[in-house]
């Protein structure tokens, strides 16, 4: 194993983590200072997302008889899940590039996938392949990888959704069951203990306190024989509260062999055990059955986009996933700060006939205490976050010959075990009334154990492996807030991406073998500003990441849907611009208090190899250089609104790391319109790709397309013209 992966002896690191955990809890027991803080709590910054947010439903009195607390504006929240306003304020207090999005901004869309909720966040690249299969990348994390998630931590209500090896799926994210979500790019996700290149996305579900209404019923549908039903009900009774929501979706999809069926159920139950003590249980059940149409040649993808790959049909390729999740957060309001103790368990079963039948069953479980508080330090305000995380999992990974989607002869019987122990701290010291110094660090030890009990790899070394990755990831930053609504920041962070089992257990000519990859390491430098002046709101960040041993993917045979292989590139560089601007063009346009605004989102991606022995200084394939989105939004006090949108990719991405083949750029025109009635009923229409543009949505990246006779079957066509509509009743 490379020496750089064991820079700290494991026993010594474990002792360090334990000692750190004991030391970090000390401030929670300190007496509160009687001195006034040098810096008052910061006012939430108006981000471009919030600048165009629809007005939230006000709840006053208890006319519904549900026990819902009275108030105006936003609902109050509770100890385990604060109000949406408090959530937004916590995100905007981060020294670095972040984004907060209220669910009201996408509730009047056909929001079926995470792309539908993330596409308005600058710096986030998410593209659909088919159904809910997609690729998510932030700052080039998991670049060229078209399945699962690598380099981004997915959380629901602040509790991890990723498996213990770091991989993650989108199938259990139900956009209709969200109240908000938070994007922490890169090292800014240290607040959750995440220090990967891409950062973290936290999907927040509503509670009975933060729900937009006690009862919500919704039905929508449209093109591709799509129909979806959704319900949500919540109640408060004394110290207890409960919320249950469910969504069922059926769609034939744009392409042949793309039928999708999903059933999602989310529930949470909260209880105030005592003054300042609250516990909340989360339950989830997620069932997905998705047919896979596979990838096509570039010619077919642009001229016959509805086709399915013949191999996908012959093998009846599909993805059937059933996941059950239980989690708990118990929160204690202390004399100084708040202590949250999270625990979770996730069971996932996967039946996935592709080039072979992948049949997996596994558990992930963990515990994570986290303390956060503000106190006086030498007469100055100090904000501190301290946390520990311990989580592990076991996955039984089996493979069989694919006989028209059924199991044939067994080719693999493996066990994949992962464990992680982490301690982290983040501190903001307000040494001037308008300026804070941010420091932080994370210590981690991650173990991956692989045991191949079947199949015939060439050597015992490929059958059994045990590897541990250890290290320290520091962060240093500066925040200047000259006005309550304006922030300027700069920071430098160290990230470490540990390979998951999709990287480590690779399929090649020897069968399925263990490849001992190094962890990806990077220093990321960023500077930016967010805020609002009069009619202009902005969120702009420039960043540059210098990577070592970058985890780079390529697909050996995309036509057969073989999982991508991974290698360590010695040096790469990721740099870019993440920008969003919103301008209120006019108010009171018709004399009735209406409003017209323009939003421009720009993500610039410059990802390259640096002096690579094979690829020189080529661009890393898979992500276009520029992605732009323009939205013109109009809203009338009567509840009527419309928003035409233009998604523009001036130049398509390279399909190979050798940079011999590039897909064409494209422009997509869409329109959202509808009306929200005062009685809680809403009607909406979401029309997409109105010009029926033929374009490439995603690519199964190869090393050199010029060496593939006839060109690689590596392309996924984007959806054609589609129109969806629906009705929602809130009461």
UniProtKB/TrEMBL annotation:
Positions of the TonB-dependent receptor plug domain: 93-200
Classification via InterPro entries: Beta-barrel_TonB, Beta-barrel_TonB_sf, Plug_dom, Plug_dom_sf, TonB-dep_rcpt-like
Annotated signal peptide: 1-30
Gene3D superfamilies, per the entry: TonB-dependent receptor, beta-barrel domain, TonB-dependent receptor, plug domain
Alphabetical UniProt keywords: Cell outer membrane, Membrane, Receptor, Signal, TonB box, Transmembrane, Transmembrane beta strand, Transport
Region (Disordered): 32-78
Bilayer disposition of the protein: Multi-pass membrane protein
Residue ranges occupied by any TonB-dependent receptor-like beta-barrel domain in the UniProt entry: 243-690
Keyword flag DNA-binding: no
Biased composition (Polar residues): 49-78
Protein name: TonB-dependent receptor
Organism: Methylorubrum rhodesianum
């Amino acid at each position: 194993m490379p020496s750089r992966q064991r820079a700290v002896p494991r026993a010594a690191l474990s002792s360090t983590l334990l000692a750190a955990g004991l030391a970090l809890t000390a401030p929670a027991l300190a007496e509160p200072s009687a001195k006034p803080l040098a810096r008052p709590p910061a006012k939430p910054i108006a981000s471009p997302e919030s600048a165009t947010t629809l007005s939230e439903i006000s709840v006053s009195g208890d006319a519904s008889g549900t026990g819902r607390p009275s108030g105006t504006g936003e609902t109050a929240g509770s100890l385990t899940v604060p109000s949406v306003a408090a959530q937004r304020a916590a995100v905007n207090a981060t020294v670095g590039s972040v984004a907060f999005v209220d669910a009201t901004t996408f509730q009047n869309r056909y929001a079926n996938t995470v792309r539908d909720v993330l596409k308005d966040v600058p710096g986030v690249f998410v593209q659909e392949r088919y159904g809910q299969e997609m690729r998510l990348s932030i700052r080039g994390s998991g670049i060229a990888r078209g399945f699962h998630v690598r380099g981004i931590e997915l959380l629901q209500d602040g509790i991890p959704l990723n498996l213990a090896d770091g991989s993650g799926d989108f199938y259990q994210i139900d956009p209709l069951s969200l109240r908000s979500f938070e994007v922490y790019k890169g090292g800014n996700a240290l607040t959750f203990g995440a220090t990967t290149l891409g950062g973290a996305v936290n999907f927040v579900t509503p509670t009975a306190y933060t729900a937009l209404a006690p009862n919500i019923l919704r039905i929508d549908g449209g093109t591709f024989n799509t129909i979806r039903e959704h319900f949500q009900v919540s109640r408060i009774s004394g110290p207890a509260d409960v919320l249950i929501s469910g969504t069922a979706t059926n769609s034939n999809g744009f392409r042949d062999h793309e039928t999708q069926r999903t059933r999602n159920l989310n529930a949470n139950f909260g209880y105030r055990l005592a003054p300042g003590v609250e516990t909340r249980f989360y339950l989830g059940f997620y069932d997905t059955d998705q047919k896979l149409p596979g990838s096509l040649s570039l010619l077919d993808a642009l001229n016959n986009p509805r086709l399915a790959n013949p191999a996908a049909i012959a093998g009846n390729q599909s993805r059937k996933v059933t996941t059950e999740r239980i989690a708990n957060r118990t929160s204690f309001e202390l004399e100084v700060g708040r202590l949250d103790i999270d625990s979770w368990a996730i069971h996932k079963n996967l039946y996935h006939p592709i080039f072979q039948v992948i049949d997996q069953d596994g558990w992930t479980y963990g515990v994570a205490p986290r303390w956060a508080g503000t106190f006086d330090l030498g007469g100055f305000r100090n904000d501190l976050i301290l946390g520990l995380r311990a989580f592990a999992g076991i996955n039984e990974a089996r493979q069989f010959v694919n006989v028209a989607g059924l199991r044939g002869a067994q080719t693999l019987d493996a066990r994949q075990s992962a464990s992680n122990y982490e301690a982290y701290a983040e501190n903001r010291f307000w040494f001037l009334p308008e300026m804070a110094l941010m420091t932080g660090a994370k210590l981690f030890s991650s173990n991956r154990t692989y045991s191949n009990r079947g199949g015939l790899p060439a050597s015992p070394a490929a059958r059994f492996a045990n590897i541990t990755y250890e290290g320290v990831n520091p962060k240093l930053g500066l925040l200047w807030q000259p006005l309550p609504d304006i922030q300027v920041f700069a920071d430098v962070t160290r990230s470490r991406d540990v390979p998951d089992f999709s990287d480590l257990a690779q399929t090649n000519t020897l069968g399925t073998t263990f490849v001992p990859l190094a962890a990806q390491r990077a220093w990321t430098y960023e500077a930016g500003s967010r805020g609002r002046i009069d009619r202009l709101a902005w969120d702009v960040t420039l960043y540059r990441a210098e990577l070592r041993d970058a985890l780079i993917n390529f697909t050996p045979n995309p036509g057969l849907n073989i999982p991508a292989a991974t290698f360590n590139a010695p040096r790469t560089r990721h740099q870019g611009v993440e920008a969003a601007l919103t301008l209120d063009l006019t108010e009171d346009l018709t004399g009735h208090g209406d409003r017209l605004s323009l939003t421009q989102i720009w993500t610039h991606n410059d990802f390259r190899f640096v002096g690579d022995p094979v690829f020189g200084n080529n661009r890393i394939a898979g992500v276009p250089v520029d992605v732009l989105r323009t939205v013109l939004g109009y809203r009338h006090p009567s509840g009527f609104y419309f928003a035409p949108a233009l998604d523009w990719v001036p130049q398509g991405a390279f399909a190979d790391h050798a940079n011999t083949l590039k897909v064409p750029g494209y422009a997509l025109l869409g329109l959202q319109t509808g009306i929200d009635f005062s009685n809680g009923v809403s009607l909406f229409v979401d029309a997409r790709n109105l010009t029926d543009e033929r374009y490439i949505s995603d690519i199964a990246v190869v090393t050199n397309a010029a060496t593939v006779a006839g060109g690689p079957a590596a392309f996924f066509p984007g959806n054609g013209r589609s129109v969806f509509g629906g009705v929602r009743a809130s009461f």
